[in-house]
Amino acid sequence: MVTNEEKIAVIIGAGPAGLTAAYELLKKNNNIKPIIFELSDHLGGIAKTMNYRGNRMDMGGHRFFSKSDRVMKWWKNILPLEDLNSEAKIDSTKIDKVMLIRKRLSRIFFLKKFFDYPVALNSNTISNLGFIRMIKIGLSYIKAILWPIKQEKSLEDFFINRFGQELYLTFFKDYTEKVWGVPCNEIDPEWGAQRVKGLSITKALLHFLKQTFSSKSSIDQKDIETSLIQQFLYPKFGPGQMWEETAAIVKERGAEIYLNHEVIGLKSSDNRIIELKVKDLLTNEIKIISGDYFFSTMPIKELVENLEPAAPAAVSQVAEGLMYRDFITVGLLLKNLKIQNKTNIKTANNLIPDNWIYIQESDVKLGRLQIFNNWSPYLVKDPTTVWLGLEYFCNEGDELWQKPDSDFIKFAIEELAKIDIIEKDKVLDSTIVRVRKAYPAFFGTYDKFSVVRQFIDKFENLFLIGRNGMHKYNNQDHSMLTAMVAVENIINNIKTKDNIWAVNAEKDYHEAK
To answer: Which helix (H) or strand (E) holds 435?
Structure first.
């Protein structure tokens, strides 16, 4: 129940950004009550964990690692690190609300062979690619250093400047276009600025040498490019556990959370949002919610569509042209894999040790392969089985998206068998999950995005946060930081939104294949 003194913060979306905003509001001001409306029937957004017959799926793979001390402490405050030195915790099955420290390994699968990620100039790479191609890669990299493209107009220019044209054509071009569905020369270079940032061949080589002669193993890894980290934190039962626990905490402290509620209107007056119109998808009831502050993690395209009165035509036109990439995950339970572990890393049942694998093969549509056993053994109901997630990037409504579930699963099994990773008769069970608007795209009308941003920022009590809320390809830690900064702006009566947009604008962080 709301008292006269309480103010209301209406939060659209119960993903990492929305739940962080609720948590921070309750921690910093007892007189602001968060009310969260979530479109789906689950918590955590894309960082949810799906449970299929006791086997848990992580949508996209979520490493809990950040160069922000604030975020690392925040996570460990919700789910503390598993303490294997404590007698009370030797049997870890007795303690469920913990974070595990996991080894990180991701590789590239190309020419039916494994390559290090990031690509390393070592004997394995030379053997797999051949001496002639390696010479071409080296020469094109030297050319990129000596004669870089002066004005990077596309993601293709961005990659060539950092890796050389030959390495770009070998490892980046086909995979990136598989992910996004458009040529690299049509994607804004800002995607690379946010996701690859400081990574280059030179840094990868320096990291290799440093790793070879150093025994440093701190989980902080602050002096390492994000693409090169060796370990990360991970909730025992997947990323959704973090957000389910956060939701339980904020509800206990007075927040309200409503699932299956669709936002169908945001009414404004005098540069303020004054009320939200939501539809209960289970009862079809329409609710009008007044509020003092509004946080949005919904796709900006949909936010602008729902403004009352309508946004100016120029703003609506840009918002309508913003694009997204959707994806589909097929969960496969198997007796075992056909592909063998040929590394020196010991694993249960001699399973290949990768957390995920980038599938570079051009004759399959499969983009990435998650091995859930290696994220956390507790994601798998029967530890003698192998639990995989096959990830396909697509657009809602396209040929892949429209395939019936049974046909898609059959198609996915055949693709994985085609590249000799599994045998079809070893499949025990399967499921499929579709995720809408998983990735905000840096093409379409993105080059005019400032038109939308400037218009939305005029609403002084509306805060855009999170990945889709800002149409910005953030990882979950940066999505959380946008929420934290927005809450601080409210508490400290800061009017500008620039500091929220500045999160993840520095070019020394992220990663991408």
So the answer is: strand 427-444
The answer to whether residues 437 and 326 touch, using CB atoms and an 8 Å cutoff, is yes
For 482, the domain range is 7-46+240-321+445-501
The rounded mean pLDDT for the chain is 90
pLDDT at 44 over 80: yes
The least confident of 206-220, 265-279, 325-339, 461-475 is 206-220
Which of 247, 276, 281, 275 shows the shortest CA–CA distance to 262? 281
Domain count, the chain: 3
For residue 102, with 0-12 CB atoms within 10 Å meaning exposed, 13-18 middle and 19 or more buried, which class applies? middle
Q: How far is CA 238 from CA 242, 308, 315, 381, in A?
A: 8, 39, 39, 13
Going by C-alpha positions, the residue among 432, 412, 334, 435 that lies closest to residue 380 is 334
Residue 125 shares a structural domain with residue 57: no
The amino acid sitting at 188 is D
As given in the structure block, the two tokens for residue 15 are 């993903």
Residues 311 and 454 in one domain: yes
64 phi and psi, to 5 degrees? -95, 85
pLDDT in tens, 327-379: 999 999 999 999 999 999 999 889 999 999 999 999 999 999 999 999 999 99
Residue 506 has what pLDDT? Answer: 53
If asked whether residues 134 and 151 sit together in one domain, one would say yes
Cα separation, 117 vs 97, whole angstroms: 31
Long-range contacts of 314-317 (CB under 8 A, 24+ apart): 314/451, 315/451, 315/452, 315/455, 317/445
